[in-house]
Amino acid sequence: MHRGYLPFLAALAQVTGSLAKTVTYNWNVTWVSASPDGFERPVIGINDAWPCPKIEANVGDFVVVNLNNKLGNETTGLHFHGINQISSNDMDGAVGTNQCPLPPDYSVKYRFYADAPGTYWYHSHSMGQYPDGLRGPLIIHDPDDPYEDDYDEEVILTLSDWYRDQTPTLLQTMIQPNNTQFAPPLPNSTLINDGGDGHIPVEAGKTYRIRMINWSAMFSTFITFADFDMDVIAIDASYVQRTSVQQLRISAAQRTDVLITIPDDADRNYPYLVALDVNQDFSSKNPPRPVSFLFNVTGLLVTDDDGDKTETFDVQAFEPFDDATFAPEDDEEVYGPVDKQWILFFDYCHDVNGYPRACFNDTMYIPQKVPALYSASSLGENNTQTAAYGQVNPFIAEYGDVIEIIINNNNDAIHPFHLHGHQFQVLARPESEAGNWSADVAINDVPPRRDTIAVNSKSYAVFRIKADNPGVFLFHCHVEWHVEMGLSATLLEAPDKLRNYTIPQDHIDACDAMGIPTTGNAAGNEDWDNTDGFVTVPPTEYTG
Asked: What is the pLDDT of residues 409-432, one digit of tens each?
């Protein structure tokens, strides 16, 4: 079954609630000391351990995470990246949008329905915490997997950049008036499986499903195997028609599932290369940053644990497969006709104090006092007034609309953009220097679906969704530094169906502990058009 957002799924969750299995995790969020690249630093872990544990469930299960903040000096929250959150928008975990910050020594319960299979991940959606370590795999298994007879075992392979300084320090350095080039912090190293050796035990004659997750703060990763092609079967938890490729470029927040078959006569260990894409645009003729061995890591598919584990290899050029051209496994055609367009232009900008920021349509996102979902649930008939939500770049979609989202990237770099609560159809994603979108562009009539798309430099992307999942959902660049610079927008989907939405008491208690109102407009005013107290100047201090 294709991943949909149909109302019957929400009803199904209610009807089968007493029959479905509930998978429960009890987690304390704690500081841990770790040295994934040989340099020790504090990281944010779970239950005094790091890397963070895996969430695993089957389609039809309910997942419960009881989260207790034991950091002591930071608030937190948890987002389940790629999960639809059908009838559970309050569990999306985006701090300031779907919940208040969770203060130290407070707990909340997250509970959501596993409606669609695939490779997901979870991470903090607060204060840039996931580059500090709060991230982990989330796997929803499929009893009707169309490829289940094509592989013998599966493994998880996580890829990321890594910083030796903590996020608040990096943000404080980046968001300063003297940063005239809008330069983000550059990482110190590349990690495989958050500091593992990159060795994957395999057996001759077997086929492996490798679930690749890039949870970088900034950079995409190239990946290629010296002796094998990769057969791609899924992107961002959406099945595609099996396609053989030699190189992949996986952007921050994206996932790709591939099949690799080990020969029957395998008698050696097989290397694969992971390289950070440290250039603004790898496709340019003269990229300014040559791919450095400092950011390249060689892993091994190990058939012989006593064999040679020193083999490495390099490539002359990175020419990854165009991930906008995959074909959906179910052949679903493009949604239409279009009811509404949401057109966004991205470029860098400055705030009123001259600090470097990132903007959609010349306006940066500024977090408000009241989470937007809480405003939508409490403003009654006035929850369709976008001015009530403050400077969060809001867009209203009516239930059932087909929404065409167009992102024009006016920047010289490639940027990954992510939409919460949906997988969108990728209708067009041309090469760099294509310019801005125009109404006569050609589209893919049988487009792939995913939740994060890399938009090429000085170019655009076009995608569509069906607005049948009521909620408040962020749309943002998944370079974490750009999120903190304001590169986000807010989709208010079917707000008429969110009136009197019930927020769980433990989530309300977290707000109360922080002194945050839980009703009214962006400032907590009961009159929707009373802007007193709206946050109009973004923070310039980042202390964690």
From this structure: 999 999 999 999 999 999 999 999
**Which residue range forms the structural domain that includes residue 370?**
340-514
Contact 451, 405 (CB under 8 A): no
* 495, HSE (Cβ side, Cα atoms, 13 Å): 26
CATH classification of the domain holding 458: 2.60.40.420
Q: Are residues 171 and 206 in the same domain?
A: yes
- 170: its two tokens: 């990096």
Q: Are residues 352 and 491 both part of a single domain?
A: yes
105 by DSSP, 3-state: which?
coil
DSSP secondary structure, 492-532, as one string: EESGGGSTTPPPPHHHHHHHHHHT---SSSTTS-SSTT--T
Q: pTM (2 decimals)? A: 0.95
User: Six-digit token pair at 474?
Assistant: 């962020």
How many other C-beta atoms are found inside a 10 Å radius of the C-beta of residue 428? 18
CA 22 to chain centre: 24
Report d(CA 276, CA 191) in Å as an integer.
10
Domain identity same for 315 and 366: no
Amino acid at 530: N
Same domain as 308, residue 206: yes
Q: Tokens 């927008």, residue?
A: 489
Q: Is residue 173 located within the same domain as residue 286? A: yes
- 3-state secondary structure at position 10: helix
Q: Which residues of the chain have pLDDT under 50?
A: 1-11, 13-18
CA distance 88 to 80: 12
Query: Residue 165, exposed/middle/buried by CB under 10 A (0-12, 13-18, 19+)?
Result: middle
Could you count the other beta carbons within 10 Å of the beta carbon of residue 136?
A: 24
Q: Are residues 168 and 310 in the same domain?
A: yes
Instruction: Calculate ∠ Cα 364-366-371, nearest 5°.
Output: 135
Rounded to whole angstroms, the Cα distance separating 22 from 216 reads 30
Instruction: Give a three-class secondary structure readout of 170-181.
Output: HHHHHCCCCCCC
Q: Are 423 and 449 in contact (CB under 8 A)?
A: yes
Q: What's the number of domains the chain is made of?
A: 3
Question: How would you class 39 by CB atoms within 10 Å of its CB: exposed for 0-12, middle for 13-18, buried for 19 or more?
Answer: exposed
Report the amino acid identity of residue 192: I
Instruction: Spell out a b/e string for 377-411, using b for 16 or more CB atoms within 10 Å of the CB, else e.
Output: bbbeebbbbeebbbbbbbbbbeeebbbbbbbbbeb
Give residue-wise pLDDT tens across range 447-470: 999 999 999 999 999 999 999 999
**Phi, psi of 189, deg, nearest 5:** -165, 175
For residues 157 and 136, state if they share a domain.
no
Locate 361 and state its tokens: 């349509």
Name residues whose C-beta falls within 8 Å of residue 131's C-beta, 6 or more positions apart in sequence.
163, 167, 170, 217, 480
Q: Tokens 């969704």 correspond to what residue?
A: 465
Residue 132 sits in the same domain as residue 166: no
